[in-house]
Records
---
Amino acid sequence: MSEISHDTGSHAHDDTHHYVNYFLIFIALCICTGISVLFDVFKGGIPKSALVFGVMAVAVAKALFVMTYFMHLKFEGAWKFIILAPTAILAVGLMIALAPDMAMHYYTNDAPQVKWVGGEHAEEVAETEHSEHSEHQHEHGGH
Amino acid sequence: MSHAPAKPAVHMGLPLPNSKLGMWLFLGTEIMFFTAFIGTYIVLYFGSPGWPTDNNITHLKIWAGGTNTFVLLASSYFVVVAHEAMAAKNYKKAWNFLALTMTLAFLFLGIKGIEYKGKFDHHILPGQIPETSLQAIRQVEGKLEGYVNETTDRLVPGDDPVHIKLLNVSTEAGETKDPDKKRQLDDLGLITAEFNRFRAEVSANTLELEEAQQRIENLHHLAVVKLKDGREITGAYFPEEPPKDAHAGHGEAEGEAKHAHRRETGDVSLHRPEVAKETRLILESNSNTAEDGSVQVSHQWVVLSPGDVEEVHHVGEGVEHIHIQSVIPYGNLFASMYFLMTGFHAIHVLVGMTLFVFPLLRGSRLDASWADWVENSGLYWHFVDLVWIFLFPLLYIVPGNI
């Protein structure tokens, strides 16, 4: 089995036809990793949104390097789209489908953790908890 | 192999080996598998105001994540070189680079292991993290109860249930001939008494986190101190230690006010008063039975000089490992997501390593028949690398910045 596939594989598309300087790709990937760490080191000096955008852009760039060259997608036939397009659509679709729950909910979050984070002092929050079912609840509602 | 079949005249279907097509289809499902986790993580992150992002709290080590990114990138590079060497029929070189890949995979798991150990050491584990002060107090109550029950069960013989055995602790201490065991039982009795007092206050909801912390610290220092004048005091004993009062930084006036406030509300101050170095402090507790039968406990700090003390027997050593854990809102969700994502990734690393074991075991017999194997396991390995490329910024860098 493997002999057959190897035979057809090596003749049908010979990777040696596409010379890639893999070491150069590796260096590029290392530089990308360095950039993401630098983003973290200098995160005080840049806007937070720029930091997140930059870090994620670097991650996408690295992913594209790996997929294009290490995984040889650049040299594969059109079948790669048949396999990757549906999964990519479903993967992104999943996040979009979940988005209403994180961004568009009508209710206010009323978890005890929210009270803790919202309270200025831990003690006050503790008091809120202790008096949860008592008349004092309204006093602490403003926190 | 010389008897390999000839190339078919017409090649049907896709122009790639079936094994490679299978691997790519599998990787397609893997993409959805990991995006489901990442999507869930993003939803939970934005749905939880106050998600723990401080690396001192989450014990995420950016150096570890960054190093592991580099390790996986390098191993990915080595795999591709190995694949290239297989195509060039340089099997010795291919084997060497597969071995390097394997080494880096071990390195990755080692660094991951260090990170996981840090999580375990700091109890950053799903379902183990208190998210409010009440949960923190209840958790330490449960741990103390576990200690008391376990020790009672061990020290008191018989098949009685533990709540019956607890009643017999003092009887047992009176009857036993073994002085060692008697001391253990006496200690247990003292700790149980402190624990019962603690539990009563927790049930009455009168204990605040800071106070509970002080109480647990006092419990750690519980001792029976024999004085030169023959007296014996049982209480939290702090020898030769400058006071680490929780309000040390607040200035004296505020501390006084706080003290007064506590006295006013009938609450006993368990905070250690300021004393000079080289003095021994002990918190003496006295139980008085009032006329109506209720037991009232009063506490009082006694200042001793080193010369007063004849002998100290530490009781609280057995519970020194029991601490109040720090409160981390949404810590459990964080820990769940962290272990879910990095754990499944680590499983993928293990699977990749298993795939590499087979060609490595061939040793010098590695030949052309393994070319597809190396290529396909290489594809899988690149995917493992890809997942980490996204997990690293999403777990280590982005939180707290968006």
---
Amino acid sequence: MIVKLTLNHQEKRFDVDASETLLETLRNHDVMSVKKGCDASSCGTCTVLVDGKPMLSCSLLTVRLQNKHIITVDGIHDEVEKISTYFGLEGADQCGFCNPGMALSIYALKQMLSNPSSEDIKTFLVGNLCRCSGYQAQFKAIKRYLGDPL
Amino acid sequence: MKIQQYHRATSLEDAYNVLMANPKNHILGGALWLKQLDREIETAIDLQDLKLDEISQSETHFRIGSMTTLYRLESAEALNEWCDQLVRSAMQHIMGVSFRHSATLGGSIMGRYAFSDLIGVFLVLEAELEFHKTGKMSLEAFLHERKMPNDILVAIYIPKQKGKSFFKKVSNTRLDFAILNFAFFKTDDQLRIAIGSRPSIAMLAKETMAFINASGWNDDTKPQALELFMNEVSFGNNQRGSAEYRKQLAKVYFMRGVEEVMKGDC
């Protein structure tokens, strides 16, 4: 089954099985920034943006994404640089496995909510798990990033 | 889970015909739990082109398309204003935002998930379901149907009723399924109470509701109402909690919920 979609601003065609998830399609085509964590809709490491909305690629069937626009961290490089810088400054990085999914959710948060409260930030990011940190350093880094203009 | 073929429906009738063609054919909602099922689907039917993701309102009702996402529901200002933020309160406790951008109302209802935080909310809001062929039936009647209607859920209707609400999900973590969940909704003259994840599916506490609606809520009636509630609702065990633990929780949150919605005017 051929699926045409836009991946990081470039048109792509994928020949996929009906059961194949977007996570599988991307990783089968060497888009390795999208991580496979729980593979059960729970951890957020596989987050991508679909038409600007954060979604879990482990649970999206690729066949449903005809003509959709998919963004991974590779498609918002400048914003990811900023997020990474603040994560570094606050010591929020350890293994880094959750960072791509987290970065995309943080970017979506900035796009979707204006002047989010601390509670808004926590509620928005509750689906992105990090097993290294205690979230405090990340939370400080996120607040600094949200203070930056897009 | 294995899907042999994919069909993007062009109309409800088209989707229905494909659904009827083979018992192994399946309508896709958000498909977030689909992977966890150990089953083979001959044809997965996608309704995304049928404009079933819209929320509209008339003088008396909200009409919510079955493909409306949970995130859209929690963001729906008019709906949440009418129900005293009850829908939003429940949605915000369901997994993360990325999950709620894909999960659909129709998928949540048709799945009849026992752990659902959403079903109790729609029970107390007196939701009515509209099926393509079967027509309309109340959510409550649907939950009591032994056999799932072999039909397509098109929309959910919520009557416009101003009221006071209270929702509580008790869980070990924010991302975990509920050990118990509670939804209370009080209009001018009616209190409705639902309890879910017992671990059985959500139910209305009808006898308790009838008693409080007839006798009121005061120091004399409170003990009797609590006793009725505890006798009427059954609790069970699963890995998240024992029946005994659930009973202790239920006593506390029943009292807290009714107190909350009985305060002041609607």
